[in-house]
Fold:
Amino acid sequence: MRTIERKEDAMRHSRFLMLALVGLLALAAGLPAHAQSSPRAKAALNEIQQTFGMVPTMFRMFPEEGVADAWDTMKYLQLSPATAIPPKYKELIGLGVAAQIPCEYCVYFHTEAARLNGATDREIREALAEASLERFWSTVLNGTAQEMTAFRTEVQRMADSMREGGDSPPSLTPVTDAASAYQDMEATFGFVPTFLKTMPSASIAAAWNEWKSIDMNPNTALPARYKTLISLAISSQVPCAYCVYADKQFARAQGVTEQEMDEAIGLAAETRHWSTFLNGSGLDKEAFRQEADAMFRHVRSSMTAAK
Structure:
């Protein structure tokens, strides 16, 4: 009797494995996860096919009820050339957000998309460094629990000093210790912000030098306005209320428009949207990269033909 039961269990297990294998093969082949009977869903998938030369698995797996809207969000914000932020910088914003989530899928996609839109390796490294700095100071601000009203008052003073300085950049001469760092901050902002005083004296000089050499440096490959927008995108989805306020004030001081800021925040939201879906779905990372490569080959070919 037990032998018969074991055989039946083995047969049931075998059937289960066969069904699972069929499902995995269907997913690997990029077959739709549902019938996609909705006219809007079919129209969206058709447009995706025309745009990328294929329908990526992530769109095939997305719920039918929302796939058209998810595509429209990507199409009108990330892929549209008519936005206030140029395509290259949109992808660098997406990369900065993806790198600190972190999301391996999104890092790969936005890196290659940035290159497709003309980003250099130096620009890519600077975008990542800017994202790193934002996380650094977000940690300091939240960890030291700065009083928000006083913080905002000081940020406004910092932004005013940026406006008054105009095109005159802060001194890029490295400081050597805490005392010289505080003197340099005084010369830059007219005072020493409270949150900077919370940094350990042993590391404040290095932290200040790094902030100046990357974020405040006018000689970097990335223009100041796009470094600030990368920072705003990061802070919006960390989330860091201190940084969002500061980044918006610094952006306005640099002449960044409200539309540019809204777009940067929207791009951060879109990156988190797809990061959540991709990681939650557990798509095979190598298969995702191969699909992304095929998409970029198609887009490059289309761009060449258009020229």
